[in-house]
Amino acid sequence: MSEIEVSNSDIYMQPNVVFSHGKNYLIKANSGHGKTSILNFIYGSSTNYQGRISYNSKTEINVLRLRKEKLSYVFQDFKLFSSLSVYQNIVLKNNLTHHKTQDEIDAFINQLGLEHKRDSLVENLSLGQKQRVAIIRALCQPFQFILLDEPFSHLDPTNIKIASALIQNEAMQQNAGILMTALDMVHVFNFNATINL
User: Fold this and answer.
1) Each residue's pLDDT tens digit, 145-155
2) How many beta carbons lie within 10 A of that of residue 51, not counting itself?
3) How far is the C-alpha of 82 from the C-alpha of 80, rounded, in Å?
4) 3-state SS, residue 44
5) Is residue 76 part of a domain?
6) In what helix (H) or strand (E) does residue 151 lie, and over which residues does it extend?
7) Has residue 4 been placed in a domain?
8) Which pTM was predicted?
9) CA distance 7 to 33
10) Which of 23, 107, 125, 161 has the most CB atoms around it within 10 Å of its CB?
11) Do the beta carbons of residue 143 and residue 66 sit within 8 Å?
12) For the chain, what is the domain count?
């Protein structure tokens, strides 16, 4: 993006931007204006930027440990393993973190209406079902921030209500922050700040 395109951004070209635990942030912009890029910079999956990102005032970080203990991410393209089942995709994350019990995982699956798809291969799911799997997987780890990249784009209002309540509950239990991207204003969470890219 050119300097003109980002001149009015609340993040790009700003001297300092701080996200605090326990607060909810909406990052809003049109398609192609860097919403996913911002989350990828924070997650450490892209370093194609100028500037510095620090976590709890530390710039020297172990990215793998950060992703295991501090940052969870619901990717816009899900990043699921197509040849594995719904349940296998979810427990892959939980096996690394041991964050949720079997009963808690089953409860997530049931609450989001995926119990009949539990053993189905992800490649045979609809986009909305894949998105729900990605949300459950992201909740199966500890986090200080959960990054949500247009996380409800394929969900109906009922599932949006259920999924957002699960995410908010998990964030509250861990005193964690929510960073969510969207094309426009959304009202699924009580946002402490709206950031325009």
Assistant:
1) 999 999 999 99
2) 12
3) 6
4) coil
5) yes
6) none
7) no
8) 0.93
9) 12
10) 125
11) no
12) 1
Residue 116 belongs to a domain: yes
Give the CA-trace dihedral at 183, 187, 192, 194, to 10 degrees.
Answer: 20
Q: CA-CA distances (angstroms) from residue 13 to 47, 87, 180, 183, 191?
A: 16, 42, 20, 21, 23
Give bridge partners of residue 71 from the DSSP assignment.
Answer: 145
SS3 39: helix
The tens digit of pLDDT for each residue in 39-52 reads 999 999 998 888 88
pLDDT at 5: 55
Short-list 188, 178, 181, CA closest to 72: 178
Domain that holds residue 174: 24-46+62-189
The CATH number assigned to the domain holding 108 equals 3.40.50.300
User: Cβ–Cβ contacts within 10 Å for residue 29, how many?
Assistant: 19
Q: What is the residue-averaged pLDDT of the chain?
A: 92
Q: How far apart are the first and last CA of the chain?
A: 11
32 is a domain residue: yes
